[in-house]
Structure formats: C-alpha cells, structure tokens
Amino acid sequence: MTYLTIVLFERLGLLLVIAFVLTRIPGFRSLLYREYSKMMSLVHICVFGLFGITGTITGVVIIGDSTVIREFVWSIEEGQMVVSLSLVAIVIAGLLGGPIVGLGAGIIAGAHLFYLGGIGVMANALVNPLTGLLAGWTARFFSQERVISPLKALFIGIFPPVLHMQLLLIFEPDQENMIAIVNAIGLPLVLSNAIAIAIFTAMIGIALREQENEAALATKQALTIAEEALPFLKKDSQQEMADSIAELLYSRLKLAAVSVTDQKEVLAHKGLGADHHRPGNRLITSLSHEALTSKQMQIAYSHTEIDCKTDNCPLQSAIIIPIMDANNATGLIKFYFKKAQHIRPVEIMLAQGLGQLISNQLNTIATEKLRTHMRDTELRNLQAQINPHFLFNTLHLIAALFRKDPEKARHITVQLAQFMRFNIGLVSESLVTMEKECEHVNAYIAIIQTRFSSQMEISFSAAEDISHVQIPPSTIQPLVENSVQHGLRNITSGGKVTVSIEKAENSLQIVVRDNGIGFPEEILLLGGQTSLKSRKNKGAGLYNVNQRLISLLGEEAKLRIRNLKNGGSEVALTIPNQDVRKG
Question: What one-character-per-residue DSSP string does 49-68 give?
C-alpha cells in the first residue's frame, strides 16, 4: 500500500505539470469566468477528456493485490487491473464546466478505460461519467464562488475514489479477490485523488489571481496614461497632438515603437524603424485600413502583415488601435513589437482600454468645445442686445433737453454714444477691464439720473488701482437697471441706488443696493439660476449676468441676492483671483 501510494504521487506530479500548462492556455479563462457556449463546452469536453486519458496513461497497473508495474499504461493484459488517475481531470471538468462538461469528459475517459479492459473494466468505465455528472451538480452549490477553495475541493475529492471502490465491488463477480484489491488500492486512491484535486484548484486560483492582477495593472496603466494624455489631446494642432501622444506612449509603455496616424498618413513615429517609418508616409498596411473600416482593433503577428517594404525592419508585429471620434475612426495608434511573442494578453488588454479611453476623451473634448462655442455665442448675443425702449426714451430726453438745456443735451448725447459703442463692441470680447466697465456704468447712470432726477439718486464709488481687473462686460449696468426698473418702479421720490466696488483679499466685491420694494420670494430662491420668463423678463437680466459670471470666472463669482431688513434689496458678486490689494 505504501509503495502504491508513492508511485501514485509520483505520477500525479507529472499530471499536475500538465494541469499547470493547461491553466496557462488563454481559452481556459472562459471556464474561470463562466463564459459558456456550445462550441467552448465541446472544446472543454475534448480537452478534459484527453486530460482524463492522460491520467489513465500515467496511472499504474497492478497484478493481484500487491504487484505494481511502473510502466506507463498503454495496454492491459488478462488478470491485470489499471489504477487510473483520470478522476482528477473529470472532477475538475465537472467543478468548472458543470454537469455537461463533466459528463462529456467522463464519457471520453471512461470509453478509453473500457477499451483497455482488464479487471474491473465496467466499474472503471462507469465511474468517470458518473463522477463528472455528480461533480457538475455539486458545483452548482458553489456557483457564487469564482473557484472552489482547496479545502472544499479536498473534501469533494474523497468521494469519487469511494464511489469507484463501490462500483468495483458491485460489478466484479470474484468478490473475495476484489475485496483484497480494494483494501490495497482504496486508501492510496483516496489520498492521491483528493490531494491532487485540491492542488489543481489551488493552481486555478493562482492563475485567476494572476489574470486579475494583470488586468488591474493594465487598467491602472491605461487610466494613468489617458490622464497624462489629456492636455495633449486638447491641442488644436493635430500634428502637435500626434507628436506628444506618440512620445508619451513610447516613454511610458517601453514598446519597440509607436506610431500615430490619421486616416491617410503617418503623423508621428517614435522608436525603432524611424529611418523608414517617417511622418508623411501613406498608410499602406491592409490591417490599418481594416481597422479604420471595421472600427475594431487589429493585430499583425508577422512582418508580412505589417506590409513594411524594408527587409531588415526590426518591427515584426503590431497592435493597431482605431481612435474614434463620435462614430467615425479618425486615426490610428500603432504599438510595434520586435517579436510576435511580445504581444501578450496584457498588452492586448492595455491597448483596448487605452484606445477606448482616448476615444472617450476626444469625444468629451469635442463636446465641451461645441458647448463652449454655443454658450459663448449665446452669451455674446445676449450682451449685444440694447433695450429699444431705453434708446427711444433717451432720444426723446435729448430732444427735450436741447430746448431747455443744450449743454446738458450734448453731455447726454456723448454718454449715449459711449453707452452704445460699448454695447456694440461686446460681441468681440469675453472680458473687459474694470476701467471700461465703470465708464459704461457711469454713462448709464448719467442718462438715468437725468431722466429721473426728481425720483431717485444714484451714487457710484470705486476703489483705486482696479482699472486693470478683468470682468465680463455689461455686468454691473444690468444690476443697476434692475434696481431702477423693478426695485424703484413704484417710488415717486426719495429713491436711492448705491453702487460700490471695494477691494478684498485677492478679489473685488461689487455691491448694488436700493431702497425699493425688494425681490419677490421666487426670485430670491431662483434668481440667477433661471430666466423666470413667466414674469415678463423680471429676473432675466440677473440670470444672464449670473450665467456669464459663472461660465467665465467660476462658481465663486455667482450673484448673491437678498432683501434688506430696512427695506430694499442687495445684489453682490465677487471678482475672484485678481491681483488687487486692500488699501
């Protein structure tokens, strides 16, 4: 018994070496990730069936209950019995592939044992398909586990040899002789099978962790490179972008070479082969055109597939990654390798992830540019609008003043001209200096103060040395206009509007106050966030100003609206991150 146990463990060592090679086969991963299909199930049935036959060949032949023949099992003579190790493969087939794979592999291994014959031929032939079926059903209890733990596998591995012993006793007519054989081989089979199955599941767990670690590493590397590539992808020059991306990928990935192309020619090439893989070369590789057409990654495993016309080119294989913009392949990134063997699954995974990330970033950048363009166009159109009622009323005022006070009329004419010139120039600028903004506000105040001299008083004060500060044009004037038209609309006398611009720490604080009726509750809650069109443009001016402030200067610059305790209202804003110092 001891000698048989030693021999079985020797043979199991060889079997586990084969199992280790099996876990390195790429198709084996489909079992680990439960990716079943009819074709893959058939392939795994054949693979594990052959693995079971290998377990039989590496088994041992015994004569009687003691003599062990150490040769590999190629045939069985009369009076001999094969002690097969096929159950190890069949149990693993059932645990990983389920009842169908386990049964199919068991039938193949069992048919081989039936063909060999010998003592216990029926038991040997039947135990394999039965074990595969039972192992597959048992695996359903562990369906939530990626791989059954070695301890559980050790426990499961005890039962197939026990079932084998039972079938030997059932089908063998010479009970006395079979009992002696079972006593001799029972314990060695149980120990060797259970331990081998536990080791095999441990190897599968290690293979799975290796794959997951490689995937995690590839994902992390792709995310890091994609983040580093973002500033280059924002470049307006396609050539500069291609040069920067090629340099980044070549330095980070340690490839033989990297090329970046558009749909027709090479834009940049870094690495080996730079003497003939030059920018400006036309795309001639058939796989490149296929990648652009199919929008799918292609792999060239030979120098012939690369289509390089230089015989001594050091680049022998490549991964060709299409770069997508919207639904179109606008270019390619090519990873070149010295040998086809250098293209491992981790390189393919990295290339797929990186291509997807860069494509997503390009789409995001394009969308953001479109939104910025549309927003800028919309805001400038809003800025350029001049209230026709204001213009007509001012012209009537000037006409009346020419009869009463010509000097005053000339002054207001100059102020109106300055006001209109500023508004017309808005479409060409996103930011203006505070000096120009103050001139615009003063022109408006001069006109309004003249029109409503008996109803209100408007005061304006600004800190010194702020003329260089940048501000969105026509920011303060709409706030003053809002106070005049809405805050003081029911005030016939004693109305006051105060405009102050004060220095704060690296910012300017602009406040417009009035002693009018204050804001309605809905504008206090939503003012600056919605145009409130239902109130006939009340709040629309605040909304437009607020949108421009946020889009051009950031969230910190947004309007702050409140009603004052003693009556009236206040609208304040901050111009942040400016080089100003408190006096």
Answer: HHHHHHHHHTSEEEETTTEE
* Residue 523 contacts residue 532 (beta carbons within 8 Å): yes
What are the CA-CA distances from residue 45 to residues 27, 99, 132 (Å)?
13, 11, 11
465-490 pLDDT tens trace: 888 889 988 889 889 988 988 888 88
The 3-state DSSP class for residue 16 equals: helix
Measured between alpha carbons, how far is residue 429 from residues 288, 426, 444, 472, 552 in Å? 45, 6, 20, 8, 12
Give the DSSP H/E element, type plus range, for residue 38. helix 38-57
Q: Residue 199: which of 102, 51, 91 has the closest Cα?
A: 91
Q: Does the reported pTM lie above 0.70?
A: no
What burial class does residue 563 get, using C-beta atoms within 10 Å of its C-beta: 0-12 exposed, 13-18 middle, 19+ buried?
middle
Q: Identify any residues that bridge with 527 across adjacent strands, giving them in sequence order.
A: 530
Q: Which two tokens stand for residue 318?
A: 């490549």
Q: What is the pLDDT of residues 394-437, one digit of tens each?
A: 888 888 888 888 888 888 888 888 888 777 666 567 788 999 99
Q: Which of 361, 348, 281, 294 is nearest to 317 (CA)?
A: 348
CB 41 within 8 Å of CB 115: no
